[in-house]
Structure formats: C-alpha cells, structure tokens
Write a structure and sequence with these properties.
The protein is of the alpha/beta class. It is built from 13 helices and 12 strands.
C-alpha cells in the first residue's frame, strides 16, 4: 500500500467503514463521531494519505489559484506589489502562481496559455514593454475569468485596472525641478506606447507649459531603462550635448541611481550641475550619495488593493464595475539630489 498513492477507499477498507464516512470525517463533518474521526485521521497520517484538493476543487469549478504575470521580478516595486497580493490572497485561502514575461509579448502570450490551462480562478497582469496585441487575453474574457491589470494596463480591454495617477506624478517631478531653478530638463523614460511612461511624459510636458518653459524634443530619451540603456543614453548622447541639461527626470530609481553615478564620474556635481528626480521610491534611491528625490509608488498598498478587488469579484461581493479603474495616490519625496538652494549651488 505504501508504494502507491493512498485513497479514501484504502482507509475505508482498513477500518471497515464506508468511503463516504471516511470522506466526511477527513472534512471534519460534525455528523461523524469524534472517536471515529480520530481513528480515521490517525490511519491517514500513518499511511501517508494526501487529500486531493485539486480534484475536489475541479468538481466545484474552482481551484483557489490566482495567476500573476509581470514583466520582471527584479525591482523593489514589483516585489512589494507581489507581497501585498500574496498576503491578502493567502489569508483568503488562495494560492498564487507567478510568471515573468521578460518584457516580451511572445513570452506573455505563452504565460497566459499556461495560466488558462492551469485553470486559475483569476488573472493579474502588468503588461510587457512590447505587447501590442491583446488577443491572448480573449479566452479569459470569453470564459468570464476575472482579469485585473495593474501599473502597465490594457486600457481598451474590459477588465479592472489599478494604477497611480502617472500624469500627476510626472507633473510633480518636473514642477519640482523647475521650482529648483532648472530650465532645461532631460527626460529619460521607457516605451511611451505603455500607459505609465506615456502619462508621465505628458505630465512632464504640462509642467513645462505651466511654467512657461519651451518643450525641447531633443531632451527626450527613450530606452529600456536597463544599465546598458542608461549608459548608452548618457555617454553617447546626453553628456555629449553642447549645452548640458540642468535637470533630469528619469522614470525608474535604479536607472536614476546608475545615471547619477555616470554623471559624477564625468566630473559633474549633483544637484549643482544636474539635479535628478527618479521614480518608485526603491531602496536604492535612499542609499545613493546624494539620496535621490523620487515619486513614492505605494507597491504594497497596490498589491493588497488588487487582491481584495479580485477576491470580492470571485466571491460576488463587489460593487465595482468590471471595467472600473482604481487610482492610488502617489507623492513626491524630496531628497538632496534635486535641492538646489543657495547653500549648495
């Protein structure tokens, strides 16, 4: 018996009970005598019986499993979002399956197929940088499997979206640099076809307009925000300009920290020569010299919000429309990298 998987029928045969009695006892049904439950559970432990919750869940058309697809796991922001999601889901009895798209639409498509075949009860997604076609989400929509997009969202799909006001965040970051006396502010950002980078860029432009500073398209640099991307942008383009910018708004703290080190290696001072503002409030923004002014992106709060929305939808306890957009607050955190007062000019 020990060489094969133990079933409730094996337990029933050993104890000369019906399979139904064993099943109810293992489920702690109050109709079963306590002594009988004790004997059944003792034998189950002795023989190594494992409850087949997956099969039971399938009969109920529910797996209590949620799928999560993210571009990459290598940021404090994404880790904090996942921590918030998992905390709420686990407390509600759900498990989480995580997959990375590595910023590739093809990989994202494969991930959605895997999640669908795994019969997830719901799917949470932050889109890859190069995703243009959303057809791989059609099966979830047709089967009415709840979809929640966060951060990088598919605006046209009938799904719930959770994000911050990226336009406002871009506006705050740029306005701060302008108020510190910056007149030529470079903007290093990701693929502006994605909502997060597009909206931050629009906020940047609006802040310039409101402060009566002309928009200069040559000060916009779009790359993948990787170390190599930042290195190429600064070394081959920005630092070779005849007239250097006096401010830099970069939409990722890791990229901002790397940019800061390159700028300092070039013999320039931060913030005296170039003031810097990053984005996300990652740990690295607090430990650089000088520490980096940034936009606080409430990752943990976002994760908990996403999970609660999804659970409420699965349990039928929500007043939110399926296409609702939930916008969380983000704020500017000022640090020495951008403060250009009389003492440090």
């Amino acid at each position: 018996m020990s060489s094969k998987e133990i079933t409730i029928y094996d337990l029933a045969r050993e104890l000369n009970l019906s399979a139904a009695t064993v099943s109810r006892a293992l489920a702690d049904n109050p109709a079963i005598n306590k002594d009988t439950k004790k004997k059944i559970n003792a034998l189950a432990i002795k023989l190594g019986y494992q409850s087949n919750k997956f099969a039971s869940n399938l009969r109920k058309q529910k797996t209590h499993t949620i799928g999560l697809i993210v571009p990459r796991l290598n940021s404090l922001f994404m880790s904090s979002v996942i921590s918030g999601i998992e905390k709420v889901l686990n407390n509600a009895g759900y498990n989480l399956i995580i997959a990375q798209s590595f910023e590739q639409e093809a990989k994202e498509r494969t991930n959605t197929t895997t999640m669908f075949n795994s019969r997830v009860d719901g799917l949470i997604v932050s889109l890859s940088s190069d995703t243009k076609d959303y057809k791989h989400f059609d099966t979830f929509i047709k089967k009415k499997i709840p979809l929640v997009f966060f951060d990088r969202i598919a605006e046209e799909l009938p799904a719930t979206k959770v994000l911050i006001d990226n336009f406002k965040a871009g506006y705050l970051a740029t306005s701060h640099l302008l108020e510190q006396g910056c007149k030529e502010i470079a903007h290093i950002t990701g693929n502006t076809s994605r909502n997060v980078y597009r909206d931050r860029f629009e906020g940047y432009k609006k802040a310039l307009a409101d402060h009566e500073v002309n928009f200069d398209p040559s000060l916009i640099y779009v790359n993948d925000l990787s170390e190599q991307g930042v290195q190429d942008t600064l070394s081959q383009q920005l630092l070779k300009r005849d007239r250097l910018p006096d401010g830099l708004f970069i939409t990722n703290d890791s990229a901002a920290a790397y940019a800061l080190s390159i700028i300092k290696e070039a013999g320039l001072k931060v913030p005296q020569d170039i003031a810097i503002v990053g984005f996300n409030n990652d740990l690295i923004s607090r430990v650089t010299e000088p520490a980096i002014t940034t936009i606080n992106y409430p990752g943990n709060e976002m994760g908990e919000t996403i999970a609660r929305i999804l659970i409420n939808r699965l349990e039928g306890e929500t007043s939110l429309n399926i296409t609702s957009t939930v916008t969380l607050n983000a704020e500017l955190i000022t640090r020495p990298s951008s403060i250009r007062n009389k003492e440090n000019i």
